[in-house]
Amino acid sequence: MNQTLDSIKTDKKRGSKKTQDDIVYAHIFDAILEQRLAPGTKLNEESLGEIFGVSRTIIRRALSRLGHEQVVVLRPNRGAVVASPTIEEARQIVFARRVVEKAVTELVCENAESTQVDKLKKLVEEEQACFSRGDRGAGIRLSGEFHLLMAEMANNPPLLSFQRSLVSLCSLIIAQYESGAKSHCSYDEHYELIEAIRKRDKNKAVRLMMHHLDHIEDKLSLDDENASDDLKAVFSGLLSGK
């Protein structure tokens, strides 16, 4: 527990404006993006408090934020669980993401600065490197962060808020329903999208984004092999001081 608390203190030094619940929230959010937390996992406040070395009040605040984003379900008198979308809910989420991604892509093409586009490219290079060395979880997280960075570049706070929820929910959907091989080619699609954005080719960029979402949706079935409902296993890196 002390090592975990030291880790949180280190995180706070790196970003002094972050509160303890900000940091706990970020760790759980990343675990969902990386598909290390299985859909339906019970998020026991006492266990999480021990893992992160913080009070249950801090844990409740973090879970409340995740509940607001709909990636965690807050059940009165029964505690919180990671969301487990049904097939119909998954379809609705993917549809909603299409609407948001289209708007985000159009705004990015209109407003993106060259330094922001370069930052997108660097993120995709990191994503590709993760998949190349077999770190699928980090690669998936960076893929999600690519879309979140685009939402930031759109300079529309409501869209960014929607996107945070949708990207993390889509990660849960993939953990539940993805079928076939564990191949991942999103970084190729991301590279093509970046070039369209750089050229401010709005129509091509939107078309590439929709194709990217088609690719994701076409692979959906059921797969929870890489996720776990063991909280201590998911956050073992923190417990070991890594």
UniProtKB/TrEMBL annotation:
CDD domains: WHTH_GntR. Pfam families: FCD, GntR. PROSITE patterns: HTH_GNTR. SMART domains: FCD, HTH_GNTR. GO terms for molecular function: DNA binding; DNA-binding transcription factor activity. InterPro entries: GntR_C (IPR011711), TF_FadR/GntR_C (IPR008920), Tscrpt_reg_HTH_GntR (IPR000524), WH-like_DNA-bd_sf (IPR036388), WH_DNA-bd_sf (IPR036390). Residues 18-85 form the HTH gntR-type domain. Keywords: DNA-binding, Transcription, Transcription regulation. This is GntR family transcriptional regulator.
